[in-house]
Amino acid sequence: MRVSTAKQCLERAMKFSFNEFHLWHQLGLSLMACGKGVGAVSVLKECARMRPEDPSLPMLAAKVCIGQLHWLEEAEALSQSVVSMGEEAAEFLPRAYLTVGLCCSLQASDATLKAERDGFNRRALQNVQKAYALDPNDAKIALYLSLQLALVRQVAAAMDPLQVALSLHGDDLHSLHLLTLLLSAQKHHQHALETLTLALSQHPESFNLLFTKVKLEEALYGPGVALQTCEDMLHLWQRRYDFTRTSEGDDSSSIHPPEPLPLSRKPSRLHLNLPDFQDTETGVLRVVRPSLRLVWSRPCQRCQPSAPPTNRVPPTSGPPWSASGCKQESCSWQRDV
Hints:
Blueprint: H1 3-13, H2 21-34, H3 37-50, H4 56-69, H5 72-83, H6 92-110, H7 114-134, H8 139-151, H9 155-168, H10 173-185, H11 189-202, H12 207-221, H13 223-241, H14 288-296
């Protein structure tokens, strides 16, 4: 059954069982799947009113507020309601702190005044640190802590939680990309390129990684080598997005282009994902782990930056990496909270 059809059936059923929580919940999920964010938030708020002891409901509403609507203040308020539950929120408590920190970080990206931006970044770091203290074995919380430390220019301190994230989920695209950016920020361009090559072996169609590779190759080898990578990117784009068109003279036989097919089993994502509050799977270390040991065993692991990180390799655009430094990597919402 299609999601839109399910939504219509649920709406009709609610005329006869208006106070049935299950129907409200299913309607909220179907509205989320249909991309109707405003309606989904309203329905999930009603679900939270019916079951105030369930912390997953405001967290789902917060996910929609951030991912579909960019209602950051509303999402922060919903997450704070879970934080106020304290220990009753159980495993949702660290995720609630993480979501509050993510909202503050995104608000810092939107802020125009430096004082406001610094204040949001400070609050974001405090909340993510609380989340990490509550659950130090969550790979995504560790990744977000490393990211936030990098955003406030604490590059050396950002390496420690990132190492934890990689030890838990060694082939994660965003963790490997952040490691590359941190090494580059410390002027270790060769080590950064080696890490990036490792990441591309796992995610060969990631345009964000390829853009970063262009910048690193330009810094190390000059524009000639970087242009070759740009050419490879154009070929990749052409294979994925460019479709055969009919001749311009035959207007009556226009063909709608098909949906682009993924080039591998690991599709590229342009932004970080909010952790899925209903996903209990843990990351599985694959062939990347032995190679990462080589990266972490290098002397650059804990070395301080040799110069202020003013010449960082500019990453590509995409929330929430849209601020300075590492923030332009690929906290969206394609992923699921």
